[in-house]
Amino acid sequence: MARTVFTNGLVFDGSGSAPAPGEVVVEGDRVTEVRSGWRSEHESTDQVIDATGCTVMPGMIESHCHLTFPSAVGHIDPSFNPPLDVSFFHHIEGLPSELARAERNAKILLDHGFTSVYSAGSILPMPVEIILRDKIKAGAVPGPRMRAASMERDNHPVRPDGHVEPDWQGPDACRRWVRDMAAQGYDSVKFLLSNDDVFVPGGSQITQYTAEEALAAGEQARESGVWLNCHAQSAESVKIAVRSGFRSIYHCTYADEEALDLLESVKDTVFVSPAPGIIYANVHEGEEFGITREVAEKMGSVDALEGMARIYPEIRKRGIRALPGGDYGFPNNPIGRNARDLQLFVDVLGYTPLEMLVAATKLGGELVDFGDLGMLRPGWLADVLVVRGNPAEDLRLLQDKDNLLAIMQNGTFHKAPVAA
Q1: Whole-angstrom distance between the N-terminal and C-terminal Cα of the chain?
Q2: How do 114-119 and 145-147 pair as beta strands?
Q3: What pLDDT digit, counting tens, does each position of 18-56 carry?
Q4: Which residue of 39, 46, 281, 361 has the fewest C-beta atoms within 10 A of its own C-beta?
Q5: Beta bridge partners of 406
Q6: Which residue intervals define the domain Amidohydrolase-related in the entry (predicted)?
Q7: Other Cβ atoms closer than 10 A to 374
Q8: Does the predicted model carry a pTM greater than 0.85?
């Protein structure tokens, strides 16, 4: 089997060490060697990729992905725009069209260097994510390998037609939901443990589930072999999530000292994803879509951005694994711009560029848990990016897909380098 050798560039292996001159060797779907320095000669059968002026790094991993959200770069849908208008849900067309849109979004995300994703929930009651995950795995469509998540479970479900779901609240109902979602084939189940200011004034401080309901969901998830994810902004919702065994806790915007202590106590098993992209976009980039400063304040985005800026330096200090990505798919925050989160972590939340490269690769690999993924190490899956320049010095390089000169997934080029 012919080898692919990336040479003459810097190598960022995901460990946290600064990029340094080196070579990466790939055979089949695995990295077989990572060596320092450059060789002047290679085997005659090697496919040699000249990475001069570039950095060779692992593929990025999106920790809070919404591939069923409608807006992506080049495909903006103003109808799905915070504050959300329920009329959007009236024109969901059905599985074939929604699947086609999710497939489009998956390819766009892979085109932008994300080779794996962990879903943060679907907006659809249809099994679009399961079908998409399996089609990508089979090689039928291009996209990041993914962990599929259920529709987001609110605890006050009122559909646009006025129908109220009976027997929805209570521990038994939560157990039943998790069991049913696991039986359908989802990898994780999403709960809206807190509400949100976008939907209800003061909603971010409303905890929608009791401790008993969340504990029942956690017990059923372990029994059914699925993970739990949650939207949690209020301090109480974060505490309930930790105590109930949720794996990925989104936002944590208003966590208090007790919530931070709890998160730190489970930092080896739990991940947090603040999703600064959408909040920053609402505060600073929403006017084209009707999100003025006044609207952003009413939606809670101004307070949320300030809350993140207070909380996440402490999360960083405590060693809690915080990952970039989240809530891309709105018109002012479309899918394809996801790498912008890395820079926002630096500018707003106090992280360093190297920390964010590790978070987007190594820590993301730990989240999706597909085995040896997220680093360039012998025996690990060969997801490889060749990036023009050095992203450890300028993370913004990752925001322009034209700077991604090569994208390899499972040892196969999704985007092959152009020969000189």
Answers
A1: 24
A2: parallel
A3: 999 999 999 999 999 999 999 988 999 999 999 999 999
A4: 39
A5: 386
A6: 55-411
A7: 28
A8: yes
